[in-house]
Amino acid sequence: xxxxxxxxxxxxxxxxxxxxxxxxxxxxxxxxxxxxxxxxxxxxxxxxxxxxxxxxxxxxxxxxxxxxxxxxxxxxxxxxxxxxxxxxxxxxxxxxxxxxxxxxxxxxxxxxxxxxxxxxxxxxxxxxxxxxxxxxxxxxxxxxxxxxxxxxxxxxxxxxxxxxxxxxxxxxxxxxxxxxxxxxxxxxxxxxxxxxxxxxxxxxxxxxxxxxxxxxxxxxxxxxxxxxxxxxxxxxxxxxxxxxxxxxxxxxxxxxxxxxxxxxxxxxxxxxxxxxxx
Length: 278
Ligand code: ZN
Known about the structure:
Elements: E1 5-10, E2 13-18, H1 29-44, E3 50-55, H2 92-112, E4 118-122, E5 125-127, H3 129-135, E6 139-143, E7 147-149, H4 165-168, H5 171-180, E8 184-185, H6 186-191, E9 197-199, H7 204-216, H8 220-236, H9 239-260, H10 270-277
Parallel strand pairs: 2-3, 3-4, 4-6, 5-7, 6-9
Antiparallel strand pairs: 1-2, 7-8
Helix pairs in contact: 2-9
Bound molecules: zinc ion (ZN).
Zinc ion binds at residues 100, 157, 161, 250, 254.
C-alpha cells in the first residue's frame, strides 16, 4: 500500500503531501488519519519549525471521498480527536453525527491548534472538504491555477462541517459563495482576504519554501504563542460557537435528507456533483 500522506523534512520544514492523486486527493478516513499521524509526527520532531501541507498530482483536493473505490464511510478507525464512541453499526442520525464529529470537526479543530505554524500550499481544485484543510492552516499560498468552491448546498446541507465561511471571507460574500456554489479563482480568493498570496504555478513550491524559511527563523515558542493568541481572538469573535451552531444544522440537514431522499447526501455522489459544476 502506498503512503496516503507523504512526509519529508528539509531545512526545518516538514512537507506533508496528500497522496491519492488518482482520486484528486479525495479524503477518505484512512487518508484523514494518516494526515493526523503526519501532523503529530511533525509536532514531535524537534527538527521541524514549520509545516507545509500540499497535494500530489493535478489538484490539492476534491474534498471528502463521496465515491471512490476506497470510500470507507462505514469503517471505524481508532478515535483520537473526540470522546465519542465508534460510529460503525449505529443507526439513525447517530452514525453520521458521531463519525463527522470525530473525522471532520474534531480533526480540523485539533489541526488548527497545532503548536507549530502551518502553511497550506494549494494548486488546482480545493473543493468543499478541502476548504476545511486549508482554513485550519495559518497561512494559505495558492498558485494562479487554484480555485475554491463549496458546492454542497446541492447535497441539501448548509456547507462543509468546519463552518468557518464567515471568518474566511466577509459574511455577505460567504452567502454568495454558498448560495451559488461557484468556483472562485485564486485571484479572487486573494482579493477577499481568504488567502495570503497567489504565485505562478511553477513557482509555488519555491515561494512557499521561501515563506516557510522566513517563519522558521523565529523562535519556536514565540511562534506557538502568537498562533495561540490569534486563534483565541478568532474564537472570542465567535468562530468556535459559529461552527458548533452550524454543526447542529448540518446534521439536521443530513437527517432530513435521509428521511426524504435516498441518503444523507440527497442522492448526490462525486459523479453527479462534478456534472453539476459544469
Ligand atoms: Zn456531513
